[in-house]
Design brief:
The protein is of the alpha+beta class and 264 residues long. The chain has two domains: 2-70; 82-263, 4-Layer Sandwich (Phosphatase 2c, domain 1), CATH 3.60.40.10. The protein is built from six helices and twelve strands. The strands form four sheets. Strands 5-6-7-8-11 form a five-stranded antiparallel beta sheet, with helices on one face. A three-stranded antiparallel beta sheet has the order 10-9-12, with no helix packed on it. The protein has a two-stranded antiparallel sheet with strand order 1-2.
Length: 264
Amino acid sequence: MITAPISFGENRFGVVQLLNKTVNKLIEPFETEELALASATSQLITQAMMMIRLAETMIEDKLLHQELEQAKQLQALLLVQNKDSLPICGRTSPARHVGGDFYDYLISQGRLVFCLGDVAGKGMPAALMMGFCISAFRSFNWQENSLNQFVTMLNGLLCDLDSDRFLVMSIGSLELDTNQLTLLCCGHSESVLLSDSAQQTRWMKAVTPPLGIMEEFGDIPAYQFMLGENSWLVLMTDGVTEAFGVEMIKQRQGIVDFFCNLQS
């Protein structure tokens, strides 16, 4: 009896087996050519099976790619589009098809409320939590509640999820009649106020930990200032640090120059 394995690397699929060779009812040994035929047959079967598995993998990868592309398009639709002719612009570029960075704004009773957030991690899990945070922002009763109340509410929701993911966020409001701006920074990258064609800068650091880690941390101290006619506020996530390097961020002037170039 001859047994030739059907295998590839450490994977074992089966065997090719030839039973006892008989001539005139007598068992005779297999010839060398017959041994080679059994081995070649097992190799052909192995190659065929590997090609089938490769084709199945390619089909699965293509379907997965299509699903991720659809998820990317849907996530892009979640991000607010500037339909109010306001001097606001935003951009996100996920490391994968989808990610956890987001920005949003709305107008409520004469004030512009805006946020920029970054869910810890990358990929689909971060994207799902990102959608959750956007829904919370848009459904919140801004007419009767403050920034601090929203942050407290969202922090409680994230803690209740019992997830290993957290959220860093900058959230603020601008009184459209007076240009009074209030900004809360929750574990987020530094924000910067640029004035007089970036000749003057004011950097604002996070004053509380990220959301979703501590159940309670009290009221968050707010930055408050007037947004002048030639001033603009820049909010950014740590993706800027990852893309351009920590040293440039430390120097600060490099990041100011970068956003000034974007404006021009």
